[in-house]
From TrEMBL:
An annotated Gene Ontology molecular function: metal ion binding
Organism: Mortierella isabellina
Ranges in coiled-coil conformation: none
PROSITE patterns: HMA_2
Name this polypeptide is given: HMA domain-containing protein
Residues of the HMA domain: 1-55
Amino acid sequence: MSCSGCSNAVNRALSKLEGVDKIDIDLEKQLVIVDTGLPQETVTQTIAKTGKAVTPLA
């Protein structure tokens, strides 16, 4: 993600998921933190659908 448009697209996609409690996006660090009980795969697939590269953290 390199701009607010990118982060907004990711935020919109994640906000549509049932069970997402909080989304924090840090453009400078290229980091998205999602507070949810959903499987990590669901979150990463949703972000990937926006066209952004995803590297899950452990």
